[in-house]
Amino acid sequence: MLYRRTVGDVMTDEVVTFRPDTPLQEVAALLDANDIVAAPVVDDDGSPVGVVSASDVLRHETGMPDAQGQDGDDERSWDRARARTAGELMSSPVFTARADWTIPRAARELRSRHVKQLPVVGDDELLTGIVTRSDLLDALIRSDAEIRGEVEQDVLGRILALDEGTVAVEVRGGVVTLRGHVPEPRLVPVVVALCQGVDGVAAVNAHLATAG
After folding, report:
1. What is the tens place of the pLDDT at every residue in 180-212?
2. CATH code 3.40.1160.10 for 7-140
3. CA pair distance 88, 59, nearest whole angstrom
4. Which CATH fold would you assign to the domain 144-210?
5. Spatial separation of the C-alpha atoms in residues 23 and 34, rounded to whole Å
6. If you count Cβ atoms within 10 Å of the first and of the last residue's Cβ in the chain, which end, N or C, has fewer?
7. Model confidence at 142, in pLDDT bands (50, 70, 90)?
């Protein structure tokens, strides 16, 4: 089987966190000092209970409305307008990810939830890291040399056990082109499918002859 990178491979495991009673002034200072746009709020056990972002703090300080309409009803908007701590300003409930999620699954979750980062929790629901959009993009955008190496070594060599030089691999802009021959016709779609499963591959062009 191909190894597919997971959230655990790309997440940041040293996470800036806030407590519910962290003053907003400290929240703003820590976000700025660490050059991050948001951080989770955790309870006494270390379980995430919400997320507070730089945009939350900015809207609060300038009196700007929530453009996404996430404040909910008027009572919630009023509570956040009076917020003095991370717990009072944070967005909750918090959406979380798991370290064993695949990169595409995490990307779909970010998109469906309309968020830019997800706290990562273990089976005990305690915080273990955080994954952001940029983390996922970095994982998907790989160099052509990296892709070629994985196709040659893992797909053609380790999995299919084809002799070296049987299939020539060229990668340009994430597009894999295969030229050569394989022992049986049924292996052609298998080779293509395995190459498509390699992280970073945009498309596969197969020009493969068969002995059968």
Report:
1. 999 999 999 999 999 998 888 889 999 999 865
2. no
3. 14
4. Histidine-containing Protein; Chain: A; (3.30.1340)
5. 17
6. N
7. confident
